[in-house]
Structures are given as structure tokens and as C-alpha cells.
Amino acid sequence: MVRRWRERLDPSAQAGVPAHVTVLFPFLDESRIDARVYSALADVLGSHQAFDLRFKKCGRLPEVLYLVPEPDTPLRQLTEAIAERWPEAPPYGGRFAEIVPHLTIAQGQEDAVLQEIEADLASRLPFTSHVASVELMVHDGVKWQEQGSFALGE
Question: How many domains are contained in the chain?
């Protein structure tokens, strides 16, 4: 639904990141991600149940257009659980007081462009997505790549 907009207007899509709702960024440096971290991630994430998200509307942050996931409580709980386990990796590096789960569509665009996207998406919303896993993405200096996938409980 958002691919064509993201590919043009979201730099993370151009760097290999699929449409997603971020659970925790930044996480640990890649050099610290070892078998113990994988095991701990599996434990932390596996203790949370899979869930459905519904995307009914767009939201805005400064120069950002995103889809609003509802309910966002399960996403916040995942973020809080991982940040609690790794306190050295606070959400968004501690820059923001509030966790705002979102699926970014476009960044750094003028308001008229964001309005065009919003109008295009309005006719295709809502949609539902089942969340059964969390993917660990790492940056190799050029591209983001999936490093692992961690199942949520069923």
C-alpha cells in the first residue's frame, strides 16, 4: 500500500528498510550482537503475544507523514520491554520523552506533497496487519539488512 511512496520519499526505504513500525532504534552496535543477545531477544519477545494492528489514518510529525497503528499499546510494550532489558539503548537515543509508534511513509517533504499522499491513501485505508514476529535490522554502512527474526507468542 505504501511502497511506491516510501521508495520515492523515505530515505530508509532506499537504504533497504521495508515498511515497518520500529520497536526500538537505535539498538546495540552490531559488534555487541552475539548469541546471548539473540537468546535474550527471543526470550523477551517470545513472552509477548502476537497481535493485529489496524491502520485507519495518517499522522504527522515535523516533515514526516506516517500511518497510525491501532492499538499502539502492544508496540509500546515491546519497546519498553527491550529498552528495560538493554537500558543502554533507550528509544530514539533518549531524544524524545514519548514513544510514538508509526509506519513512516515520507520524510523531509513539503506540506503539499504530504497532503497528496494522504489523499491517495485515504481511499485505500483501513487495512489490518498481523504481527507475529519482530525483525532485527542492522546497518552495514550502506544498507539495512535483516539479521534475525524473533517470534512473538501465539
Answer: 1
DSSP 94: G
- CATH code of the domain containing 87: 3.90.1140.10
Residues near 74 by Cβ (< 8 Å), separated by ≥ 6?
48, 49, 51, 53, 131
CA dist 88 → 5, 13, 82, 128 (Å):
34, 27, 10, 33
SS3 content of the chain, % helix, strand, coil (to 5): 35, 30, 35
Query: Residues 63, 107: contact at Cβ < 8 Å?
Result: yes
The C-alpha atoms of residue 68 and residue 70 are separated, in whole angstroms, by 6
| pLDDT of 48 | 98
List the grid coordinates of 151: 517470534
Q: Is the whole model's pTM more than 0.85, yes or no?
A: yes
